[in-house]
Automatic annotation (TrEMBL):
Localization terms from the record: Secreted, Cell wall
Protein name stated in the entry: Polygalacturonase
SUPFAM superfamilies: Pectin lyase-like
One Gene Ontology biological process: carbohydrate metabolic process
Record bears the keyword Nuclease: no
One of the record's GO molecular function terms: polygalacturonase activity
Amino acid sequence: MASVNVPAGKVFLLNSLHFTGPCIPKPLLFTMDGEMIAQSDPNKWGKSENGVIPWLIFDQVDGLAIVGRGLLNGQGKAWWDIHCRDHPGPMMTFSNCGNVTLKSLRFRNSAQTHVLVMGSHNVYIDDIKITAPEASPNTDGIHITSSTAVSITHSDIATGDDCVSIGDQVNNVNVSFLNCGPGHGVSIGSLGRGGTEVAVENIRVWHVNFTGTTNGARIKTWPGGTGYARGIEFFDIRFSSVQNPIIIDQFYGCAPKCPQTRKAVHIEKVRYMKMRGTSATKVAMKLECSGESVPCSDIFMRDIDLSPANGIDSVSSLCSFVQGSAQGIIRPSSCL
């Protein structure tokens, strides 16, 4: 086993650092108990012909473990007033990696997304804490794309964007025992932008607490996409003053002036079970699917109990082009 150690009690100013495999020997262990900070001045970041160089990238590394109680501080405040296309990208990226463990680290104030999992498999994320101000733009906690077999568990995420976002070409993801908020919730999507073909399935979101988020359990797609998002399950979810506790939005990024199209990502086989708490908006369950040509299908609800948060008189549900069924107690009344 090869190892790298960042000792406790030490602070390191770190420029962009890329680890490219394959690595021999393996596994490769990073123990991070100290603090690593990025340059706070955007003008001091390295640049290439493709723009600002990202901070920490692990590429084509198999058998990687990053553990410890250390802090990675992106010092991103100076970036948040600059257009996101000029940002250095995620704080930590796993690209085309396999058999990865990320455990117990703390992440703070990334310029953009904190952790990106891309083109990877068998990734296990446990007991991490991610924080950024509620008003910080595009500071997703964890974004997953083109990956399979990813687990996120026993973690706390509070940022200015999605706590966890699941992009295209993703399957077999488990998100469990997560505290989310503030932020934009746990999102499947956005999917289908620019007419792309989508393949997302077997996503499980269990035992999650949403507090003061703009969304809770969210699926979002762009009009004109194709393919599917299916086999999605939200179970044992608690909401505290969440603006859109349960939402499917198939008009993401264009409402109310969306282009006319009969193409859409097909959302099917979605389960909402054992969900309770308070809604900070009057429409607590909003399922707005694409239309008659590609309705949402096989949507199931059981034991949903949502009440109005302080300042809200009552809550209701709204469904458009949804096929499904409900069992048990459903409050507000089901529109399925």
